[in-house]
Amino acid sequence: MTLVDSGNARDNGLTLVSHFFESMDEMPHSWTLQHSKEVAKQTNGYDCGVHMCQNAADVAYDLPFSCSPNKVHAIRKAMTFEILTGALMPRE
After folding, report:
1. Rounded CA gap, 19 and 85, in Å?
2. ∠ CA(6), CA(8), CA(10), 5° rounding?
3. Which of 16, 27, 34, 67 has CB 3.0 to 4.6 Å from 21, enough for a Cys bridge?
């Protein structure tokens, strides 16, 4: 399992996920937990939703991570368009 975290608390996030699975006795023994080194870090405390949605879309479409601080405004506009029209834009 790979933790995709654009914030600054990478070790804390992985520790929380690990503790959750341990407390539930649900973690399959064949799984390992690791951080994604490819995800861009956000530069503020309010773009986390844009990063999360874009990173999820990139994983769902099997694309490389494409969110970065300089693309957040354009990604937010595209997300707004998709919500208002009810249609997804093509992914490349």
Report:
1. 40
2. 80
3. 27
- Give the three-class secondary structure for 68: coil
Q: Which CATH number is associated with domain 2-85?
A: 3.40.395.10
What CA dihedral angle connects 61, 57, 80 and 44, to 10 degrees?
-140
16-62 pLDDT, tens per residue? 877 887 787 766 777 777 778 888 888 898 998 999 999 999 999 99
Task: List residues bridging with 34 in a β-sheet.
Answer: 2
Q: Are 39 and 5 in contact (CB under 8 A)?
A: yes
Look at the pTM and tell me if it is higher than 0.85.
no
Looking at 1-92, which runs of residues are DSSP E strands? 2-3, 34-35
Distance CA(75)–CA(83), nearest Å, equals 12
